[in-house]
User: What shape does this take?
Amino acid sequence: KNQVEQSPQSLIILEGKNCTLQCNYTVSPFSNLRWYKQDTGRGPVSLTIMTFSENTKSNGRYTATLDADTKQSSLHITASQLSDSASYICVVPRGSQGNLIFGKGTKLSVKP
Amino acid sequence: NAGVTQTPKFQVLKTGQSMTLQCAQDMNHEYMSWYRQDPGMGLRLIHYSVGAGITDQGEVPNGYNVSRSTTEDFPLRLLSAAPSQTSVYFCASSYLGANTGELFFGEGSRLTVL
Assistant: This one.
C-alpha cells in the first residue's frame, strides 16, 4: 500500500534550537519527494523537491535529506525561529498525473 | 503577483444547498487541482485538470463537480452540500503538472455545512 508516514506528530522546541522531522514512504515507483510548510490558516508552501538522485537539498535554514534505499527523508531546521511554527508536510507522487500522497504532517511549535 | 486566488475564504451552508468555490491563477499554469484537508488526515485530491476543457477525478470526487473553460479558472461546485463536506478546500496549480512540478496553493476556503 502506498503510504507516507511522518513523525513526530507534534514537536515543541525553544527558539534557537535545531530539530529534525522524519518522513517514511512506501510509494513505488518513486520519482520525487517534497516538503511543504503550512502556516496555520494558510495554504502549503513548497520548501524543497528532491529527486531520486539527490541526497541533500537546502533552502536557507531548512535542509532535507533523502535515502531512497531505506525510503526515508528528513527535514532539519537549524537555529529555529518563532516563524518556523507551522505544520510540515511530506508529499510523494504516485503513478498517474495528479496523484500525490500527502503525509499527515508534523506540527512544530517554536517557543521563546 | 497574485498567484492562486480562492474565494470565498469562509462559507456556511445548510444541508442540501449548493455553492461554487472559485479558484483563479495568473501564472498561466495548465495543471490545476482541488484538495480537501480534514483534521488528522493528509490532503486528498478531489478533481484535477491538465488544461482547458480537460478534467478528471481524484481520490474523493463524489459530491463535487468541476469544469475548466479557461486556463485561469477552475471552479469547484457542490451540488447538494452534506455535513461530510465540512472541510478546508485548497486549490493548487502547477506549470509542469503535480507529479513533476512545484504545486502552488491558494489560501484555502473553509466550508461548514450544518
About this structure: DSSP finds no helices and eleven strands in chain B. Residues 87 and 111 of chain B are 6 Å apart (CA to CA).
